Amino acid sequence: MKLSEASVMKRLLAYMWRYKWLTALALAFTFLTSLLLTAIPLAARWFIDNLVDPKVSTAPVLTALQFLALYYALFVARVLATYLSQISFARVSNSIVRDIRLDIFRNLQGLGMSFYDQTAAGSIVSRVTNDTQAVADMFSTVFSSLVSSLLLFLVTLVTMFSLDWHLTIWILPFLPIIWISIKLYRKFSNRLVKMTRQKLSDINVKLAESIEGMRIVQAFRQEKRLTQEFEQINGEHLSYANRSVDVNSIFLRPAMSLLQVLAYAVILTFFGLNWRNSGFTAGLIYAFIQYVNQLFQPLIDVTQNFATLQTSTVSAARVFEMMDRTDYEPKQAGYLNEIERGDIHFEHVSFSYDGKRDVLKDISFEVKNGETIAFVGHTGSGKSSIINLFMRFYEFDRGRILIDGNDIKDYRQEALRKSIGLVLQEPFLYHGSIASNIRMYHQELTDEEIHQAAEFVDVADFIESLPGAYDHPVTERGSTLSTGQRQLLAFARTIAAKPKILILDEATANIDQETEEMIQSSLKKMRQGRTTIAIAHRLSTIQDANCIYVLDKGKIIESGSHEELIALKGTYKKMYDLQAGMMQ
């Protein structure tokens, strides 16, 4: 859903309201800055008319020194007030961006797998980092500039009317011209700013994709192609950015500067035609010229910062659009807090990711506590989809899934996550230590329990051989460890959580045969006393399963023990013979 600029600003102001007292302090310092800026030309006028005039040039030196002390005190006070105003706005800005990043990150944690299937990781990162930083720029620079410029404009205008309202009226026609210039700028720049931000997001997507897939890129010699694609996107970003600069150059500072020069011409013409009869003093002329500069400078600053404001508004809209996503993972509004045994029963379950084509068709099976069942089949047959539904990554509405005779939707999310242990084909390790990856930030787990889990899956000797043992640092994704080592740590992590139901999603697919044989005993120990569902690529790893289900195009076409399926001489027998032939 596209958000209007008004709704975006309303939500940003709601974030600012959280820090209303700090904002009020920043506004107070800004108002003080405006008053001091207005007082300085008045002081200069008094100096010119009272101390520079030859008729009073014999004034005591002390009076002049006192004036100079006051004049420079005004300058120092203005600098101090400006500093306090800017630092207050910066703190408000940083606090707001922290809150926005926390809110969008919290929302991302709750979104379902369907969102991550359809959204590039680089695009998400771009919105959480680059776009939120653009929002920070709006509050720390643009918003403070807008407020200070508005206050300075109003105070200066009131002062000019009090000095000479006739001359001030001659300046007012320039204001609607400025307004028209700003409107034209918004009309032409809005689309360019949006496309510039979109291309920046595309750059992040392409960069993240290239870095994550660098092994494949280099292995297939795709460096030149990726460079060309990146160059194209980067060039499109440059094109839109340059077009934005062109629009800025026409409608922003150059146009405002031209209007300011014309205003000076009007003032000097007015003074030149009326100086004999008007009684204007040199000090008044100087003050008026300074006030015209102060009148136009805020407008120039506003228009100059309008590009940043436009970019920040577009960026904030992109952030809020992602923050407003509601395609969450299935919510468990159930009342059951604990899984007692772990008996599982699928009753006529059908499912479609897109609502058009079923990937699961009338799936029914049953597995009791302590039993192991396995699913085999070609890629796309629906094996992982069964796990996705059971883990509640996706919602389904045809058929039922029962645990201990209760509908899976009647269990609380915490109960399911606590009682189900999942081991994936690609083990994911976090930046930290060996111990923190096994503990998985469950602080209630003691060091002794961590060590016992490692010993249970026969990985303790390997860990203790590392420098620092359990405190050995783990890099991002565990890149310094082999695939087998990472998988063993994933087993230890699962066992440490003491799950009642174990899900093995091709957990040994990426492990060499020697390592696989070493951990088979660990897998058998892990399965004892637990309900286990295994998705297997290597049929040799699931021959002892209580029941093996063969899937094809979302349907169960065969089921039985290993011996029974071999005797059927069907799809399973062909798969087994094919793998056996490859092993020879």
UniProtKB/TrEMBL annotation:
Subcellular location: Cell membrane
Keyword vocabulary terms for this entry: ATP-binding, Membrane, Nucleotide-binding, Transmembrane, Transmembrane helix, Transport
Occurrences of domain ABC transmembrane type-1 (ranges): 24-311
Residue stretches making up the ABC transporter domain: 344-578
Coiled-coil intervals: none
An annotated Gene Ontology molecular function: ATP hydrolysis activity
Pfam assignment, any one: ABC_tran
Matching CDD domains: ABC_6TM_TmrA_like (cd18544), ABCC_Glucan_exporter_like (cd03254)
Membrane topology, from the record: Multi-pass membrane protein
Name used for this protein in its record: ABC transporter ATP-binding protein
Organism name: Streptococcus lactarius
